[in-house]
Amino acid sequence: MPLSATPRILVVDDEEAILYVFERYLSVAGYDVAVANNGFDAVRAGEAGPFDLLITDFRMPGMNGIEVIHALRRLKPGLPALVISGNPIEAGKMPDGVRFLSKPVSMAGLLGIIPSLIGHGA
Fold first, then answer.
1. Looking at residue 61, what DSSP letter applies?
2. What are the Cα distances from residue 90, in Å, to 32, 71, 72, 102, 117?
3. Angle 66-50-107 (CA atoms, 0-180°, nearest 5)?
4. Less Cβ crowding at N or C end of the chain, within 10 Å?
5. Under a CB-based contact definition with an 8 Å cutoff, are residues 45 and 34 in contact?
6. What domains lie within the chain, and their CATH numbers?
7. 76: buried, middle or exposed (CB in 10 Å: 19+, 13-18, 0-12)?
8. Element (H or E) spanning 11, and its range?
9. Which residues pair with 84 in a beta bridge?
10. pLDDT digits 0-9 by tens, 65-120
11. Edge to edge, what strands does the sheet with 32-36 contain?
12. Contact (CB, 8 A) for 78 and 61
C-alpha cells in the first residue's frame, strides 16, 4: 500500500458507545474507519476489502478478539492488530504482531501507537 493512501482501520466491539467514540476519534485523526459490533460482521467487512489495522475488544459474544484476528489473518496474513480488554489475565498471551491495551483506553495513547502498528512512522 502506498504511504500516501489513507490507512483503513476496522474497529470491533460489542458496545455501540465504544464503537462511536473510536470511529469519531480515528476519523478526525485522518483514518478511514469501519466498525463492526461482532466478530462475524468483522469477518464480512474483511472479506469486502482489506484493512491496514484491526482494533478489537477481547470479550465479545460469538467470537472473541483473538478468534477475530485469526479469521481476518486468513484473509490478510500479517494483519496488524490491537486487542483491548479490561482483563489482561483473561486475554492471555497475544499472537505474534498483536499489541494489547487495557481499558479504559486513552485516545491520545491510542493515536500515538497506531502509526507504529501500520508501519507509517513513529
1. S
2. 30, 20, 21, 11, 23
3. 60
4. C
5. yes
6. 8-117 (3.40.50.2300)
7. middle
8. strand 8-12
9. 57, 101
10. 999 999 999 999 999 999 999 877 676 788 888 999 988 889 999 999 999 999 75
11. 32-36, 8-12, 53-57, 81-85, 98-102
12. no
DSSP state of 32: E
Query: Residue 11 is placed in which grid cell?
Result: 474497529
The conformation of residue 121, written as its DSSP 8-state character, comes to -
Of 89 and 33, the structure prediction assigns the larger pLDDT to 33
Q: Cell 500515538 identifies what position?
A: 112
Residue with cell 472473541: 64
Q: Reply yes or no: is the peptide bond before residue 95 cis, omega within 30 of 0.
A: no
Cell of 35: 466498525
Q: What are phi and psi of 26, to 5 degrees?
A: -70, -35
Cell numbers representing residue 13 in the block:
466491539
Record the cell numbers describing residue 82, joined without a space. Answer: 490491537
Query: Are 114 and 53 contacting, i.e. CB atoms less than 8 angstroms apart?
Result: yes
- Locus of grid cell 460489542: 14
Three-state secondary-structure class, residue 81 = strand
Question: In the chain, which ranges are E strands?
Answer: 8-12, 32-36, 53-57, 81-85, 98-102
- pTM for this entry: 0.91
